[in-house]
Specification:
Helix content is 35%, strand content 20%. The chain is of the alpha/beta class. The N and C termini lie close together (10 Å). The structure holds D-xylitol-5-phosphate (DX5) and zinc ion.
């Protein structure tokens, strides 16, 4: 499976988002990870539709990987799709009906994904995997950047095995505490899309750090 790096702009300099995105374009990362938080599903509030639209306008060719940490994703997926998302991930632990949210995603052109928190078992996502392009396994409790990596090796392996046994070509994304040390661990377990926020943006040279991350899994 091909490996991808998705840069979480939660750790970017938001006052200078335009120049941060230009840097990302040059750095060779594959997508921008856009974390939407509503202060209810998680204890933090970030940004939403108008910011996503502006990024799409600024960088139309960059893939926008939208991670919805919100209570009622069903209500909003269509608007996020219309605002420029290429992938939309919602949480299975949200209050929206999972199958209805997937059906709503089918009405759009975006890729469909479900995220699971550290305490949610792999099996919870199995019944939905045939309808999905990606599963996001959280390697921290969602809400904040810069947290310590939690090892989800067994969960990733179970999801990858289920996909293989059922001939499902599905991406497995990991999000939280990913750096050059933890990337090989999740890769070995079966993940192929690495989200990285603080590791990328706190580094001196973003392009070099993105390269290190890629080398750690290639
Ligand atoms: C956390 C977010 C992450 C976060 C990752 O709830 O979903 O995308 O930005 O940040 P790092 O890479 O710093 O753990
Ligand atoms: Zn995220």
């Amino acid at each position: 499976m091909q490996n991808y790096v998705s840069a979480s702009i939660l750790s970017a300099d938001l006052l200078n988002l335009e120049s941060e995105i230009r840097k990302l374009e040059k750095s060779g990362v594959d997508m921008i990870h856009f974390d939407v938080m509503d202060g209810i599903f998680v204890d933090n509030i970030t940004y939403g539709l108008p910011v996503l639209k502006s990024i799409k306008k600024l960088s139309p060719d960059m893939l926008l990987d939208v991670h919805l940490m919100i209570t009622k994703p069903l209500k909003y997926v269509r608007e996020f799709a219309e605002s420029g998302a290429d992938i939309i991930t919602f949480h299975i632990e949200s209050k929206s009906n999972t199958m209805r949210t997937i059906e709503e995603l089918y009405k759009t052109n975006v890729k469909r994904a479900i995220a699971i928190k550290p305490d949610t078992p792999a099996e919870s996502v199995f019944p939905y995997m045939k309808y999905l392009n990606m599963v996001l396994v959280m390697t921290v409790e969602p809400g904040f950047g810069g947290q310590k990596f939690m090892d989800m090796t067994d969960k990733i392996k179970k999801i990858r095995n289920y996909a293989d046994e059922n001939n499902l070509a599905i991406d497995i994304q990991v999000d939280g505490g990913i750096d050059d040390k933890t990337a090989p661990v999740v890769k070995k377990a079966g993940a192929n899309i690495l989200v990285s926020g603080s590791y990328l943006f706190r580094s001196e040279n973003l392009a070099e750090t993105a390269d290190n991350l890629r080398k750690a899994v290639d």
